[in-house]
């Protein structure tokens, strides 16, 4: 996934840490094999190469992420959309690599018309999916969160009940530390933000942050961030960082992206409507959080 992972856990019986590490890495390798557009042999790459309209047998994890992504796409009015793969590539943020210049309006409009979450069908009963348009899936806004969830599930399957999982900044906290305290984590602030740090407790809870400072490039005196607004085909503007809390990290991950695209005001209304705990930092330095988020702070 182009990032790092870490796990802190309470061990109540002798265990080889190397074995735990190998198990965690194996869980994440499985996510890459299913959902990385950087891997030509991955399931998502196979899906994107398939003939339009042809059903493709897909693994359960892939379908879980796809069905969740499509649901959140509907909830957000397309602010989050897993069918942005071609647009992401056009802006140089995908597996195709950097671009020499920003795409023109005609290109982005054409790609937007070709895509759209309504042109993907997901049949979880028969374990298959298909696309009905010349679009490409991209799970960059949800796969890291799912990876953290999968690591947490693997740890539970091995008998661990108290741990903190981190995958590229996405976090899952389960149980408590040996001293009875919850897993306290600090929210990542955008570089240069003149805001006091915030600390929250993760106890059976996940946190995901979407920030426009993680990947970006400059062209013609303008700064373009990697978070794409699927509705316009252009990088989202106005929001520097969004953190969302949710029982499932993949949902927190996707909702954070959706709110970053919607903007501070509309994004906060969206979070309140769905009962999401959200914290938003605007590019102009403004900060907003709802009551659901405030309740989780130290």
TrEMBL record:
InterPro entries: ApbE (IPR024932), ApbE-like_sf (IPR003374)
EC numbers on record: 2.7.1.180
Cofactor(s) needed: Mg(2+); Mn(2+)
Binding site for Mg(2+): 141, 253, 257
Catalytic activity entry: L-threonyl-[protein] + FAD = FMN-L-threonyl-[protein] + AMP + H(+)
UniProt KW keywords: FAD, Flavoprotein, Magnesium, Metal-binding, Transferase
Free-text cofactor note: Magnesium. Can also use manganese.
MF terms in GO: metal ion binding; transferase activity
Signal peptide from the UniProt entry: none
Catalytic EC class: transferase
Superkingdom of origin: Bacteria
Family: Belongs to the ApbE family.
Protein name in the entry: FAD:protein FMN transferase
Organism encoding this protein: Sphingosinicella microcystinivorans
């Amino acid at each position: 996934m182009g990032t790092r992972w870490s796990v802190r856990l309470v061990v109540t019986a002798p265990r080889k840490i190397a074995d735990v590490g190998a198990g965690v890495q194996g869980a994440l390798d499985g996510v890459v094999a299913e959902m990385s557009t950087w891997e030509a042999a991955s399931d998502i790459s196979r899906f994107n190469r398939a003939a339009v309209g042809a059903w493709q047998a897909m693994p359960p994890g892939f379908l879980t992420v796809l069905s969740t992504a499509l649901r959140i796409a509907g909830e957000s009015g397309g602010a989050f959309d897993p069918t942005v793969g071609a647009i992401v590539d056009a802006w140089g943020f995908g597996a195709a690599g950097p671009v020499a210049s920003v795409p023109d309006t005609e290109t982005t409009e054409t790609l937007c018309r070709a895509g759209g979450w309504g042109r993907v069908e997901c049949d979880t009963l028969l374990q298959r999916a298909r696309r009905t348009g010349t679009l490409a899936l991209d799970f960059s806004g949800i796969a890291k969160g799912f990876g953290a969830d999968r690591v947490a599930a693997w740890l539970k399957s091995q008998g661990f009940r108290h741990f903190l999982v981190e995958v590229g900044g996405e976090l899952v906290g389960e149980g408590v530390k040996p001293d009875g305290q919850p897993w306290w984590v600090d929210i990542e602030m955008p570089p240069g933000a003149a805001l006091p740090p915030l600390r929250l407790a993760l106890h059976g809870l996940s946190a995901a942050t979407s920030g426009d400072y993680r990947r970006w490039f400059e062209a013609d005196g303008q700064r373009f961030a990697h978070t794409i607004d699927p509705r316009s085909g252009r990088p989202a503007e106005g929001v520097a960082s969004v953190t969302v809390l949710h029982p499932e990290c993949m949902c927190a991950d996707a909702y954070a992206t959706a709110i970053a695209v919607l903007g501070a005001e509309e994004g906060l209304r969206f979070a309140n409507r769905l009962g999401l705990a959200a914290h938003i930092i605007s590019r102009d330095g403004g900060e907003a959080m709802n009551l659901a988020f405030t309740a989780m702070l130290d």
